[in-house]
Predict the 3D structure of the following.
Amino acid sequence: MVAVLNNYGGFYNRKVYVSEARISGANICLPCVNQSAFNSSIQGKDIYLGFDCLLNFEGKLAHRIIAERERDGTYQSLQDFVKRTQAGLEQVIILIRIGALRFTGVGKKQLLWEAHLMMSRHKPAVAGMALFETESRKPILPPLEEDILEDYYDEMELIGFCVTGTLFDLAKSDYRGDMPARELHLHEGNIVRVVGDFVCEKFVKTKRGDLMKFGTFLDAEGRFFDTVHFPQTLTKYPLLGTGIYLIEGKVFVEYGCPSIEVIRCGKMPLKSDPRSE
């Protein structure tokens, strides 16, 4: 899975390979300035996502972070990181929001405050060891509330999908369907309801020229299941891209693989983003 991620290939998007690695027993770790390489890397059962997975993150800075770490050792604090890498405020904010400075043991919100206070008034010092290493006085802040949903939305915005959780953790409803995907073959011929995270779709034209679709989803356990959307159903209940879908349909098995002939489906609502409240 790490090789596929670093090959920037494969049929599916990254979240599918990350999900598959997790099912196989891997511990998926967000990028870390003291652990990550430019690409994804593996340390035992820990897979560290690389800086390359971060949207709008500068490649030159990513390589500088790694080179500086290899030359003078791991980073000791936010101030130490900024001084040694010369990272700008915008890039530091990305790293803080994705949890790449979690080694400090300081919460994201406090780190953001510190970064703004330290970097908005003064430009980063010239790289290299100072004659006397000093730490600026940190602001004393009141307790800041943390919400795991903020992390999920940060990850979706900066990586494209949830890493510490899944899209199911953002669904308003706890309902996950009548059964997991691994049990669908036991319900051949029955009408069931399942819940899936949309992965991809394929258009096919019928002999009459109408459009039908084949869908692929992941269930809450991270396992695949397929759907068939005939023209009449597709018109009433279209697939609308990324999201969690509640799907009702009839199970049929072909060549030992179960699929669902969709009767109706629709996106399930997600919890509101606490960052905008």
In short: Helices lie at 2-7, 14-23, 59-72, 78-85, 89-97, 108-119, 148-158, 231-236.
